[in-house]
Amino acid sequence: MKHLFFSMLAVCFISITHAQRIPLADSAVTTKHQITANGQKFSYTAKAGTQPVWDNAGKVLATVHYTYYYRDDIQDRNKRPLVISFNGGPGSGSVWMHLAYTGPRLLNIDDEGYPLQPYGVKENPYTILDVADIVFIDPVNTGFSRILDEKADRSLFFGINADIRYLAEWLNTFVTRNNRWASPKYLIGESYGTTRVSGLAHELQNNQWMYLNGVILVSPTELGIKRDGALEKALRWPYYAAAAWFHKKLPSDLQSKELEAMLPEVEQFTMDELLPAIAKGSSLDANSKAAIIKKMARYSGLSETVIAQNNMDISTNLYWKELLRDQGMTIGRLDSRYLGIDMRDGGERPDFNAELTSWLHSFTPAINYYYANELKYKSDVKYNMFGNVHPWDNSNDNTGYNLRQAMAANPFLHVMVQSGYYDGACDYFNAKYNMWQMDPSGKLAPRMSFKGYRSGHMMYLRKEDLIKANEDIRQFIKLSTPKPDQAAKY
């Protein structure tokens, strides 16, 4: 009878949502599935639905779409971790980590992440669903989520702090509805999602009184930590070295080393020599400048001439255009393993992001197929891979420092950073710099960790890194789970 009820419930909501282009404020479609993950075979439930966003007077302003997975054979869900997942943009849906990283289904790509046909999804044997339940959330105007009240003030949703506030309220309701208050809770965010979850950790703790066990930052942004001028110009260099190493553009002595063995040398050069040299500007004497430019060329695959012509300031756009210019190719922004072809070899920036077109090629058919055919969530509402969330208010971004404050006030809270070495948009060395500045005293260092991978922004697209990164999350959850009766105190 229970399965019959769920089936009838699903049919009811499917028929309603399919008939309109405006999503229901409050809905759910529940389906049952089986999987073998991390060597364990088990059944799980998927609930795809919408939950309202209310104003202070209880009026529905918008609806937020979510997909919630929970393992069925759990006897005590109070001890079962809940992972709350956001992607970035800020106008991006949760599709990326949902269908390519932690969720129970994977889109059809090859082992390096390139699109394959026929489009579709397959089992993800590396999902973290064996150790934690997961909810993937699409903020307003992403995925199937929409503003429902035409008169609603868009500034309530579209800004760093507004986004954090309404999502914290939404999460309070979600956790209450699904009886997960006693569960250990984790936030995971990718790209702009790291800004979101860093702020949410503080907002949930201070204004919803919801305390977390962990925050996972995948390809983090700057988190409001300023780095203008010389810092901005210098901190890119280890990423340039990684990209050059992948494309075999480094001198033989560097190229012959393993990537992880080579990068510390570049990191030391960046902080000890390059940063102070750039800061000196025109006061740097000619001999010292020539020596620095020679090392910059050695570690980047670029010519000394190009570096000198640009006053030692090589923008990322120029780097993506310049590294393989002699081969008539550009390299990707979010993942510099990907190659592009421009209309002309001249210029200072690529015509398009080679990696993003490749990803949309495979993700868009997969997510639309998956919701309609496997989760039985059918709607005439378009799934927004990228939605209109403009104008976005970027002011008062203190999210990195707010995450530090949340950690300081909660001895149980741990943070893990995951970065791809070939990510040129949110590069790995800037991610390390975040950690140093968030915790200048080093007192939180035992609860902060960094993991690097030989791929780009979405490191999990590469099969080897998908396996490693999911296992890193499992170990992070294990590490951040307190012993029975362990008190949260210093």
UniProtKB/TrEMBL annotation:
Molecular functions (GO terms): carboxypeptidase activity
UniProt keyword list: Carboxypeptidase, Glycoprotein, Hydrolase, Protease, Signal
UniProt xrefs under Gene3D superfamilies: alpha/beta hydrolase (3.40.50.1820)
Pfam family, one: Peptidase_S10
Signal sequence residues: 1-19
InterPro entries linked: AB_hydrolase_fold, Peptidase_S10
Superkingdom of this protein's organism: Bacteria
The keyword Signal appears for this protein: yes
Protein name: Carboxypeptidase
Species this chain originates from: Sphingobacterium tenebrionis
